[in-house]
Amino acid sequence: MAGHFCDSKCDFKAIFNFGDSNSDTGGFWAAFPAQHGPFGMTYFKRPTGRATDGRLIVDFLAQAVGLPFLSPYLQSIGSDYRHGANYATLASTVLLPNTSLFVTGISPFSLAIQLNQMKQFKARVDELHSTGKTSSTYLPRPDIFGKSLYTFYIGQNDFTSNMAAIGIGGVKRYLPQVVSQIGGTIKELYGLGGRTFLVLNLAPVGCYPAFLVELPHQASDLDTFGCIISYNNAVVEYNKMLKQTLAQTRKALPKASLIYVDIHSVMLELFQHPKNHGIGLKYGTKACCGYGGGAYNFNPQVYCGNSKVINGSTVTAGACSDPYNYVSWDGIHATEAANKLVTLAILNGSYFDPPFPIHQLCDLKPIG
Questions:
Q1: 330 catalytic, yes or no?
Q2: Low-confidence residues of the chain, pLDDT below 50?
Q3: Could you confirm whether 321 is annotated as catalytic?
Q4: Which of 35, 80, 234, 331 sits a CA distance of 20 to 30 A from 359?
Q5: What's the CA gap between 98 and 165, in Å, rounded?
Q6: Which of the following CATH numbers is that of domain 14-266: 3.90.1690, 3.30.1490, 3.40.50, 3.30.420?
């Protein structure tokens, strides 16, 4: 779990990540222990709190810059924070939730809470260092906060959690608050010493098997690749709004590198042309782990890894034997194979705005 750490030339000595299930390395299941197989089957060979079969984008990024996998901030046993911390939790939103986890499934650890956890973390590091108590702990030196990557992959749940109830028009009304909150959070982290920020935009949710099954739409709203046009158009609008907000925020942070990372373009290409990428991908809008088969292999009544009695019979949503052939792991999250392709595209530098010379700043390692 610690990952392979190599001493290498890199300006970044740590990663601090903020996000939802797309980058949660175990925080949610540390707070609410329950995860079981087949999650983790590909790389870790056991569940590790990640909502996929193996590694996430943030895992691959850590490997590329020569850092260990990030310990979840909420994980009290076995964590090592000398090279960063992960505040992401499954089902997190940018905006404060107005409901309970046990009512709607939305995590209580919204971005504002994650920011407060980061503030507390830094305050404790500074305090313990000033009293000489950090030598025997798994905590970083206080100067690490200015030498770190701050990564964001969050917003999908703000976008999708109310989609079925209030429609695209309803969701669009509060998206300006979402991007504003992200910009404000970055400003606060800048005040804590942060100088390098990578903000990943939203993937095309209209191509996700779960939303193709659950969200209302007409057949005429499907494009030639089987994705929902109206939902994907709404994501594009949100991403433009995010990009504009980051451009405005950048003007207020003269010493910062604030980078918009266009993973949307990469994921859209994977969903539309899964077979064009040379690693065995075959299925775009079909889930590896699910129940029901057919075009999507997703049934909202029985989620990946679970069993349920349906029409008098016990059915199980099991995993495929070849997740490397799928873009979607469970209908909602990407497989390790897709996450690896997205990370390789990011590290290539073509999806940074403005351009960001990560190859010059780090002697990048192969991500395997």
A1: yes
A2: 1-6
A3: no
A4: 80
A5: 15
A6: 3.40.50
φ and ψ of 235, to 5 deg: -65, -40
Calculated CA dihedral for residues 212, 215, 216, 219, nearest 10 degrees:
-10
Q: What is the pLDDT of residue 368?
A: 84
Task: Name which of 201, 202, 200, 198 is nearest 258 in CA terms.
Answer: 198
What are the tens digits of pLDDT across the range 121-175? 999 999 999 988 766 579 999 999 999 999 999 999 999 998 988 999 999 999 9
Q: Which of 136, 265, 333, 363 is catalytic?
A: 333
Q: Which of 24, 135, 330, 350 is catalytic?
A: 330
What is the pLDDT, as a whole number, of residue 135? 60
Q: 333 an active-site residue?
A: yes
- Is the sign of the CA dihedral 267, 109, 148, 242 positive or negative? positive
Q: Six-digit token pair at 24? A: 């949660």
What is the reported pTM?
A: 0.96
Tally the C-alpha atoms within 13 A of residue 274's C-alpha that lie toward its C-beta: 22
179 touches 241 (CB < 8 A): yes
Phi, psi for 268 (deg, rounded to 5): -60, -45
Catalytic choice (20, 21, 262, 328): 21
**CA–CA separation, 62 vs 68, rounded Å?**
6
Could you report how far apart the first and last alpha carbons of the chain are, in Å? 15
The length of the chain in residues reads: 368
- 293 CB neighbour count, 10 Å cutoff: 10
Tell me the per-residue pLDDT of 86-117, one tens digit each, with 9 for 90 and over.
999 999 999 999 888 877 889 999 999 999 99
135 DSSP 8-state letter: T
